[in-house]
Design goal:
137 residues; 6% strand; homodimer; DNA-binding; mainly alpha; 2 strands; 6 helices; two-stranded antiparallel sheet
Chain lengths: 137, 137
DNA sequence: AATTACCCTATCTATTTAATAGAGTAAACA
DNA sequence: TGTTTACTCTATTAAATAGATAGGGTAATT
């Protein structure tokens, strides 16, 4: 199941991408328009800023804005920040690899075998989609 | 993240599929060979039996066995039983559809848009893989 | 009839998710 | 320079879920 964090994060990013100008948008504005708890959204936007997806500006007229063009923002990056590893088990993770302690041999492990295919399928989707693809025309 | 329930279930199914004969295998045997808590495994095998994947036999020489040939057992069915809906959000689920209460319009929802593609990618994998594909040669 | 192994119910703990509160800090503008 | 505005951080809490465990009951073989 997709976490609300990811759901909210995607909605916020899409909201920013849909702005005509590139002026900063306040948290309060996004939270109101997208029905998201303001405090929760705060922490989500913060993590997106710290990982280089968003920029922020303080003071009057401040808020959050996209640093790159929507079509330059890959879903692989966004999903890893918001949802964590794309792989469903650490033993098939590209960026967060870990050996399963209860598994004697990855090469003959059926879970590994299936989850490798699942990972590849998901990666393909996330690599082929950018934020621009999520904005409705 | 994949739940341990699913992980254990897949390992147990693969273990059964790898048997030379089709004699029932005891829970204790599977739990020992695959490093799985016996009681937990009990409940997993039970749900696989109730959904028509496994059969069971009581008394001496009893245990669990596959009802169908491994290549007839689709991962779509197995995953739905063990892990639940394949879709990550209910609004794109084929078998467990539900409207998101916080989303005004699915057609313009970015989460819906992305998760639809993710669902299709995952479905494709699960439809194209059977239990037979998980057994190492 | 006794054995073997499945079947069911209940409980407990740890972890994670989601939401909330409150105080602190930095930047913009008059 | 001071005030406003809005971002930033820490901590707390409630709810849900996962995972594990215990113990008793029941059905089918031999």
């Amino acid at each position: 199941m997709l976490s609300k964090k990811t759901k909210y994060g995607l909605k916020a990013l899409t909201f920013l991408a849909a702005q005509k100008d590139k002026l900063p948008v306040q948290i309060a504005e996004i939270s109101k328009q997208e029905n998201i708890s303001q405090k929760f959204l705060e922490s989500i936007l913060l993590s997106l800023r710290k990982t280089g997806i968003l920029g922020s500006k303080k003071g009057k007229g401040g808020g959050y804005y996209l640093i790159k063009e929507p079509k330059e923002i890959l879903m692989t990056d966004v999903m890893r920040i918001l949802e964590g590893p794309i792989a469903l088990v650490p033993c098939v993770s590209l960026n967060f690899y870990e050996k399963c302690e209860d598994c004697p041999d990855e090469k003959t492990c059926s879970v590994n075998k299936l989850m490798l295919k699942v990972r590849d399928a998901n990666l393909a989707v996330y690599r082929n989609n950018t934020l621009a693809d999520l904005v409705s025309i």
